[in-house]
Design a protein that fits this description.
18% helix; Thiol Ester Dehydrase, Chain A; alpha+beta; 6-stranded antiparallel sheet; 151 residues
Length: 151
């Protein structure tokens, strides 16, 4: 296992996401060909908490899935040596399960395993943890395509 840490500036050089949809703060572990671990600090300042839900803030499940996909995207880019002028698009999401709500003050620890990477398709299995407990899990496939869309 590598102890490579990827900071936010490097993450923004790897994936195209930006505020308010950049949902990974740092990568704390990376094992080539196998696994990556990322961190998302969940704060009350996140814009989605204003409406989800007033008086009872809960991180939307789709954003937890997106955070898991972004960590998986960093893994896919690292595995391919950089995707250059390309982006990753979901092609499916399977086996998604939500176990516990994620609230302000939580820290998501996202573990993403590379199931396969062939040509321009990758499949990732990811789990998001808070304080050692699984809060979400899913498998997803993505396609690497040019930023200006398929030709």
């Amino acid at each position: 296992m590598s102890e490579e840490i990827i900071n936010i500036e490097e993450i923004m050089n790897i994936i195209p996401h930006r505020y308010p949809l950049l949902l990974v703060d740092r990568i704390v572990e990376y094992t080539k060909g196998e696994q990556i671990v990322g961190i998302k600090n969940v704060t009350i300042n996140e814009g989605f908490f204003q409406g989800h839900f007033p008086g009872k803030p809960v991180m939307p499940g789709v954003l937890i899935i997106e955070a898991m996909a972004q960590v998986g995207g960093v893994l896919a880019v690292k595995e391919t040596g950089g995707i250059g002028n390309n982006v990753l698009y979901f092609i499916n999401i399977d086996k998604a399960k939500f176990r516990k709500p994620v609230v302000p003050g939580d820290q998501l620890r996202i573990v993403a395993d590379l199931l396969y990477l062939r040509r321009n398709i990758c499949k990732i299995k990811a789990r998001a943890y808070v304080a050692g407990n699984v809060v979400c899990q899913a498998e997803f496939s993505s396609m690497i395509v040019p930023k200006d869309g398929p030709k």
